[in-house]
């Protein structure tokens, strides 16, 4: 029987990769055949020939397929087998034999990784669920404070440009941060800032915004009698004083001072007439500061006239020595009161000219700086007659030239309002050039424009005012300003009405 050369497939091959095609090449002497086998054994029918290759046992089911073997017949007809991978040291078997665990991991590692990933995701979801449930329970039991009184320091970003715009949020937000850049950076790089606060909680609940008004007229003993009487008479000439139900007066900057309050105007007039300034009762040393703080505190401790929602008007000749006014401001705010002050350009003593201006700023009032003979004019211009209730109050700091986007102004009723602005927080100097307050809404636009020439034609003061008519819509506000030098100026901007809001206007820092 003739030899038949073929390939016998072992049952193990069913679980292994397909065999590669064998290549049979004759060498130059035609007596050597190079044959490549892969997991295949050679057989003969009838007479079995010598089999070249290697036998596969059951362990091969768990091992990776071996690489193709090269079989060469040498000149001595000795068959040698070469493997690409050498056998491990100390092992006389050809090739590399892997453990079952290693092969199992290599074969199923993708499935294992997927299972691990799924378990990790499940754990994350469980953790998030626990955190959310805990957070929800915390919110249900937490309490919040109604008082917002955070002071935010302004930020500054120098920009080289021809137009500068600064934005501030709406007035109902408790704190405002914004940036200001100067169109004239060679003159100044100062910042602008606004900080609004709500009325302290709980505050005085003995009155509402439509309260009966109490008016306190407080004057320094260092002023002349003429200045005091002129200011009193100017107040009495205004028909708007009929809004007040109680009238009080106090002469301060003396060792002893008494608060007098009356429900009628005649007693008010007479009390001031009988308590005019007396130099013999005043402080004899200019280093002594004003005791105006004590006068205000004494007024709030009186038990005759209602103090909730009161309006306090101060004629200041001597500066206080106190720089910190936080305790006094808290007291005034607690009673929902407003302080207006006119400060003399020629003080009789004290060291802090801006302290009472700051008190006015923080209680939604106004602060004027005037010569003594012009106190009468300031008494006329300050807003405590026909439009005593602020419905828009901000205080900003400016320097150099630029534009500030102010908080929007919204009034639920159509009507006429009064805009009052102080353009400097000190005795006026020639650093002021001009400002333009713009207000725009879908129905109208307008502006309030003031320059250095127009204010000098008044009385060289620092306070101006103008009427404003607006609709029941949101009104956009912005301010263009222009100052020379490096000085920083604190501006009070108020819009007032004779019809108070249902809620107290937020205080401004």
UniProtKB/TrEMBL annotation:
<feature type="transmembrane region" description="Helical">
    <location>
        <begin position="108"/>
        <end position="133"/>
    </location>
</feature>
<keyword id="KW-0812">Transmembrane</keyword>
<feature type="compositionally biased region" description="Low complexity">
    <location>
        <begin position="140"/>
        <end position="171"/>
    </location>
</feature>
<feature type="domain" description="DUF7154">
    <location>
        <begin position="395"/>
        <end position="497"/>
    </location>
</feature>
<dbReference type="GO" id="GO:0045087">
    <property type="term" value="P:innate immune response"/>
</dbReference>
<feature type="region of interest" description="Disordered">
    <location>
        <begin position="140"/>
        <end position="207"/>
    </location>
</feature>
<keyword id="KW-1133">Transmembrane helix</keyword>
<keyword id="KW-0472">Membrane</keyword>
<dbReference type="Pfam" id="PF23673">
    <property type="entry name" value="DUF7154"/>
</dbReference>
<protein>
    <recommendedName>
        <fullName>DUF7154 domain-containing protein</fullName>
    </recommendedName>
</protein>
<dbReference type="InterPro" id="IPR055578">
    <property type="entry name" value="DUF7154"/>
</dbReference>
<feature type="compositionally biased region" description="Low complexity">
    <location>
        <begin position="181"/>
        <end position="199"/>
    </location>
</feature>
């Amino acid at each position: 029987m003739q030899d038949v050369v073929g390939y016998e497939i072992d049952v193990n091959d069913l679980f292994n990769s397909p065999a590669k095609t064998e290549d049979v090449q004759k060498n130059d002497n035609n007596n050597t055949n190079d044959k490549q086998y892969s997991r295949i054994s050679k057989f003969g029918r009838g007479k079995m020939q010598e089999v070249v290759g290697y036998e596969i046992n059951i362990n091969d089911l768990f091992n990776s397929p071996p690489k193709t073997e090269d079989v060469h017949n040498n000149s001595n007809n000795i068959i040698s087998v070469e493997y690409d991978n050498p056998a491990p040291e100390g092992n006389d078997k050809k090739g590399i034999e892997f453990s079952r665990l290693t092969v199992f991991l290599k074969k199923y590692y993708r499935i294992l990784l997927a299972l691990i990933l799924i378990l990790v995701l499940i754990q994350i979801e469980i953790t998030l669920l626990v955190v959310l449930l805990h957070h929800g329970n915390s919110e249900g039991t937490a309490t919040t404070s109604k008082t917002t009184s955070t002071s935010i320091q302004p930020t500054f970003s120098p920009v080289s440009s021809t137009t500068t715009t600064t934005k501030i949020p709406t007035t109902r937000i408790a704190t405002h941060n914004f940036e200001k850049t100067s169109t004239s950076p060679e003159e100044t790089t100062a910042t602008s800032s606004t900080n609004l606060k709500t009325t302290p909680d709980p505050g005085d609940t003995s009155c509402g915004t439509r309260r009966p008004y109490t008016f306190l007229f407080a004057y320094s003993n260092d002023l002349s009698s003429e200045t005091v009487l002129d200011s009193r008479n100017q107040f009495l000439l205004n028909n708007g004083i009929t809004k007040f139900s109680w009238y009080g007066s106090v002469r301060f900057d003396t060792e002893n001072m008494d608060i007098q309050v009356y429900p009628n105007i005649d007693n008010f007039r007479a009390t001031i007439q009988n308590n005019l300034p007396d130099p013999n009762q005043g402080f004899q040393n200019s280093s002594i500061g004003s005791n105006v703080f004590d006068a205000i505190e004494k007024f709030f401790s009186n038990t005759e006239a209602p103090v909730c929602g009161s309006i306090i008007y101060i004629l200041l000749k001597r500066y206080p020595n106190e720089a910190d006014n936080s305790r006094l401001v808290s007291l005034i705010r607690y009673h929902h009161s407003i302080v207006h002050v006119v400060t003399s350009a020629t003080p009789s003593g004290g060291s802090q000219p801006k302290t009472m201006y700051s008190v006015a700023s923080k209680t939604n009032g106004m602060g004027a700086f005037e010569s003594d003979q012009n106190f009468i004019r300031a008494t006329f211009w300050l807003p405590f007659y026909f439009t005593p209730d602020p419905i828009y109050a901000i205080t900003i700091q400016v320097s150099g030239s630029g534009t500030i986007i102010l908080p929007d102004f919204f009034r639920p009723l159509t009507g006429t309002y009064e805009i009052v602005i102080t353009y400097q927080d000190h005795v006026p100097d020639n650093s002021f050039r001009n400002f333009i307050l713009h207000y725009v809404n879908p129905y109208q636009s307008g502006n309030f424009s003031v320059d250095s020439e127009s204010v000098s034609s008044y009385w060289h003061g620092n306070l101006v005012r103008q009427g404003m008519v607006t609709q029941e819509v949101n009104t956009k506000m912005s301010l263009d300003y222009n100052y020379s030098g490096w000085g920083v100026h604190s501006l009070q901007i108020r819009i007032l009405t004779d019809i108070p809001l249902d809620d107290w206007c937020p205080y401004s820092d």
